[in-house]
Amino acid sequence: MLALAGVFALTAEAQEVAADSVMQHAKGNRLSIGGYGEVNYSRNFYSDHVSRYSQPEDHKNDPSHGRFDIPHAVIYLSYDFGKGWSFGTEIEFEHGGNGLAYEKEDEEGGEWEQEVEKGGEVELEQFWIQKTFSKAANIRAGHIVVPVGLNNAYHEPLNFFTVYRPEGEDIIMPSTWHQTGFSFFGRYGKFRYEAQFLAGLNADQFTNTGWIHKGPKSPLEFDIANKYGGALRLDWYPVQGLRFGLSGYYGQSIGNTYPAEKDGASATYKGHVAIGSFDLTYKGHNWIVRGQADYGYLSDAEQLKYMYNRKNSKSPYKHSAFVSGNAYAVGIEAGYDIFSQIQHMRANNQKLYFFGRFEAYDPYASDTRNTSYGYTAVKRIATGFNYKPVKEIVIKAEYSHRFLKSQYNDEPSVSIGVAYEGWFL
Are 77 and 32 in contact (CB under 8 A)? Predict the structure, then answer.
């Protein structure tokens, strides 16, 4: 099964112990079919009005609001052609959508917009051909996951305690970050490594509240590659159950748009994006601990507002807010398996993790042209439980609380969710 090294790891144990993801679960099958999905409910005890940040006092006592959601429903397909050649694809349905959705744009005064994304809310998140030479040397070409940060490298729902993906990385970076390009990866001894060559991000998609989150999105039928980027990741497994990871990204983003400009701002400025990330996981003695720290830099950030304003009314790039030159996200979570102390539950391999999480993040960490969006700086705590009746299923519940700066209203919420993750064939 070395031909399928690095295809997918769909159990929390496989992802946390072996990031190179040898398909041990496939049991020799040439064709493998699997996936994961989440069904969530949240009750948010704060205002959902578009001016809740610009006029916080007016919305301090607004009613709570609730929502059901299917954040991700994913189908995996992979096939081993033999002689080291394999194929993999991932089709993702986000929020049950079909390509078009209306939403209120907070950063544009609450204007209603119809979001049209490439593939809509049904996305081809992975599509690649792979050649495996050995466990230490694999080449992959196609649409691939960019493993920068903990969320992107380990984004399946059994790999985090919270009902939704941890917020900090999910806000400042694409999640799951996927682009078309080439990857070289492998595992040697206690190390796993990966290097990627990718199409550049599009600075026209950057925002004050999400930093580069929308950067890989293309409103066209193709990914623009006037500029290029690269990603690196290194994982170290010093002892059983412990993993340390370093990852990063660098590339240009201004001018990676259509049509390419011969002159003007996009020909003058570069929009260098640099991201550095450290993460870790530990699983042992009935504990699971995960943590990450990310810091990002964007050059020429002050130019983006004026570049947006040059767009005509029918352009898909209409943002009018400043974008920050820096963003950060740090977080840590820990959970203990209570059922490990109950013999009957332990014998049935059922698990009940009580967990706590703390994170702090800000997609607008540095003022641009003396402009501040204070509500983007968030500290968040979450606590709750994860119940795993079987290895592939988790039932989650949590209370969370976002702490904003004193002039804004805090944002508490309660969420429950059910998720699965596994292989069917």
Answer: yes
